[in-house]
Design goal:
Elements lengths: L2 H10 L6 H5 L16 E5 L8 H9 L8 E5 L13 E4 L11 H5 L5 E2 L2 E2 L1 H8 L6 E8 H14 L3 E9 L11 H7 L2 E4 L2 H11 L4 E2 L20 E6 L4 H4 L2 H14 L4 E6 L5 H7 L5 E3 L5 H9 L3 E5 L4 H7 L6 H7 L4 E4 L5 H9 L3 E3 L4 H13 L1 H18 L2 H17 L1
Parallel strand pairs: 1-2, 1-6, 2-3, 6-7, 7-8, 8-9, 10-11, 10-13, 11-12, 13-14, 14-15
Antiparallel strand pairs: 4-5
Helix pairs in contact: 10-16, 16-17
């Protein structure tokens, strides 16, 4: 134990606080509650919101949970927190600052972390006598996963590790326990795509379950065609350079070329405020429009009145390796809308392989603006074929990938984990 840790132990009065020291309750697990009554500490990159995939997925999984049974600790500084979804939502900077002067704030329990050390004093004050049944980590970074594992160990509660992007080997400057050890000690391990499951089971030699966002019931109301006097292509989501460029730029170029050859189309990009500069940089105000952020109801209507929805995945080899396992929240929602959906990205990308595996949507894996133009021309000449397939896709998603089905599996995992 180093000098800093000894100082914190002296203030806390114990080296390894158990549950009785945090909440006044015994360390042993109490009676198993039903899933909607479990108390869950959520450690995540972003909290409940409709502005990013993490927030939307959390909203799906915990939609029937009482707010007083949830506490959120989140990493991202640039998100809007949905109100009323949990008893508390606190931004946590981990591994924390590195300046020597910040050590005093850490030791006093004012800051949650410093140089990769985590404050038990801060955690106790934040919990304020409230004790979860388990810790649920919904993460992409190793730093956030490491912090969630520390909380679970400090509180003596089970850890559920749910990895949404392949960044958990990144601990920044702080270092931490090995990822494999953290995962091996977790009560349950979840990933968001089949591609990630295969790779993680090979990499860590541990079993994983697959669980990603499902489409909410309102998305299944059905597309409304004939609403546009031109071919309307839409993308609703964040515009992140290492995820979507150069693919989304190709789509914009294809729409412009389609119009130059006599077609009539418009590409609309609706993105969150945090990626506005990237989305706006693609727009020209004519063939390509940046609409900015939209609320959930407007977004649903935009999906259901589009002639074509697109899911772009980067073709850049350097960026692809870090995003290939990601299955965006929007994929099941797009397919549930009943509007034709095109996945444009390389082979091996989770959205591409998901659609191939389940025979839904349309897939273009060759990076080619001319091929995109050809796709738009076929859609303009024969919209019925793709619209008919889109209706069939909607029913398949309703049966297999609805929000209700995702919640059922999620609550089963948490209930089983708490019962152990």
């Amino acid at each position: 134990m180093n000098i800093l840790e000894k100082a914190e132990v002296n203030w806390m009065g114990t080296e390894n606080p158990n549950l009785s020291e945090v909440s006044g309750k015994p360390a042993a697990c109490g009676p198993c509650r039903t899933s909607s009554h479990l108390k869950v500490c959520i450690v995540t990159e972003a909290p409940f919101s409709q502005g990013n995939g993490f927030g939307v997925t959390l909203s799906t999984f915990f939609s029937d949970w009482p707010a007083e049974n949830l506490l959120q600790l989140y990493a991202s500084p640039d998100v809007e927190v949905a109100s009323g979804r949990s008893r508390k939502a606190v931004r946590v900077w981990v591994p924390g600052p590195y300046a020597r002067g910040e050590a005093f704030r850490y030791l006093l329990g004012i800051s949650p972390a410093w140089r990769g050390h985590f404050s038990r004093r801060w955690l106790n004050k934040t919990m304020d006598g409230w004790m979860p049944d388990l810790v649920y980590a919904f993460v992409y970074s190793g730093e956030t996963l490491n912090y969630a594992a520390w909380i679970a160990k400090s509180l003596g509660r089970p850890l559920i590790a749910h990895v949404a992007d392949d960044g958990i080997e990144n601990f920044g400057r702080a270092g931490g326990a090995s990822v494999r050890r953290i995962l091996s000690e977790a009560q349950a391990r979840i990933v968001i795509s089949e591609e990630m499951r295969v790779e993680y089971e090979r990499r860590y030699e541990l079993p994983f379950e697959i669980l990603h966002n499902g489409a909410a019931e309102e998305f299944f109301e059905g597309a409304e065609f004939g609403m546009n006097d031109e071919l309307v292509v839409r993308y609703l989501g964040s515009v992140v350079p290492n995820h979507h460029f150069n693919s989304i730029e190709d789509i914009a170029s294809a729409v412009r070329q389609f119009n130059q050859s006599g077609g009539k189309a418009r590409f609309e990009i609706c993105g969150g405020e945090w990626t506005r500069e990237h989305g706006a940089s693609i727009a020209d105000g004519d063939a390509v429009i940046y609409r900015g952020a939209v609320d959930r109801e407007t977004g649903r209507r935009l999906l259901q009145t589009a002639d074509l929805l697109v899911v772009p995945v980067t073709f850049d080899r350097r960026d692809f390796s870090s995003v290939r396992f990601s299955l965006p929240t929007k994929v099941p929602e797009y397919l549930a809308s009943g509007s034709p959906t095109l996945i444009y990205g390389p082979e091996g990308a989770a959205p591409v392989e998901f659609c191939r595996r389940h025979n839904v949507g349309s897939v273009l894996t060759e990076r080619s603006v001319p091929r995109l133009v050809e796709f738009l021309e076929r859609l303009a000449m024969d919209p019925i074929t793709l619209r008919t397939k889109a209706k069939e896709d909607r029913e398949y998603i309703r049966q297999h990938f609805s929000a209700a089905a995702a919640r059922l599996k999620f609550t089963s995992i948490l209930t089983t984990s708490a019962g152990r």
